[in-house]
Structure formats: C-alpha cells, structure tokens
Amino acid sequence: MLQELVAPHTMWFYDFQWQSVGSKHGLQSKLSRITRIPPDVHLHETPLSSVLVTQRLSWAAGRETTRVEDQAYCLLGIFDVNMPLLYREESKAFRRLQ
C-alpha cells in the first residue's frame, strides 16, 4: 500500500532471498521513479497535506491490486481517511472514498 511506503522514516528493502537491497533513503531515486512519489515526500521534507489531491491520486494510477476495492483502500492513509474496509464491494469502495 502507498502509505506503507511514505509513512515510515526508516525502511529497508530485501530481495527474495532476504538479502538487503538497501534503505529507503539510499534507494530514493529508484523509489521515486517507480512510485512517482517525489523524494521530498518520501523523506518527510514535504508534508502530504501540502501535496495536491490530483498528484496524490496519480500515485495510485496504474497500480495493480488483487482486489478491485484495494485500489481505493491503498489511498486511505495518503488522504488521512478512516473508513471501514468492506471486501466484496469492488468499485463501490472508490465511490465511498470520494
């Protein structure tokens, strides 16, 4: 989920054999290129609340999820929204988020 990438100040990444690939700080350029989330947001130099809603929505564009409703649920932390997760609601989740 998106908020798990943005929220922690410190994060380490591992490959499939549990070998360390690097830290959130050290992999910043790759993370920003892949996620389209600016480095200053990842590094907590710019608060999420100051980033345009349209830009935050764009971070989820093209993201593949197992369940349709997870496309909306991955945005909850990015928009500081608390709503119940109702699996099997599919596209209704995004309408509720809006």
Q: Bin the helical content.
A: 25-40%
Radius of gyration (CA) equals: 14 Å
Number of helices: 6
Distance between the termini: 18 Å
| Beta-strand residue fraction | 5-15%
Main β-sheet, spatial strand arrangement: 1-2
What general form does the structure show? globular
- The total count of strands amounts to 2
User: Largest sheet, if any?
Assistant: 2 strands, antiparallel
Overall mean pLDDT stands at 86
Structural class: mainly alpha
Question: What is the number of domains?
Answer: 1
Task: Give the low-pLDDT segments.
Answer: none
SSE string? HEEHHHHH
Notable traits:
98 residues; 36% helix; single chain; two-stranded antiparallel ribbon; mainly alpha
In brief, what are we looking at here?
The chain has 98 residues and is mostly helical. The chain has one domain. The chain is 36% helix and 7% strand.
Describe this structure in words.
- The chain has 98 residues and is mainly α.
- It has one domain (2-97).
- 36% of the residues lie in helices and 7% in strands.
- The protein contains six helices and two strands; from the N terminus they run αββααααα.
- It has helices spanning 2-6, 28-35, 39-42, 53-60, 70-73, 92-97, and strands at residues 12-14, 20-23.
- A two-stranded antiparallel ribbon has the order 1-2.
- β1 and β2 form a beta hairpin.
- The protein is globular, with a radius of gyration of 14 Å.
- It starts with a helix and ends with a helix.
- The mean pLDDT is 86.
Q: How is the secondary structure organized here?
A:
Blueprint: H1 2-6, E1 12-14, E2 20-23, H2 28-35, H3 39-42, H4 53-60, H5 70-73, H6 92-97
Antiparallel strand pairs: 1-2
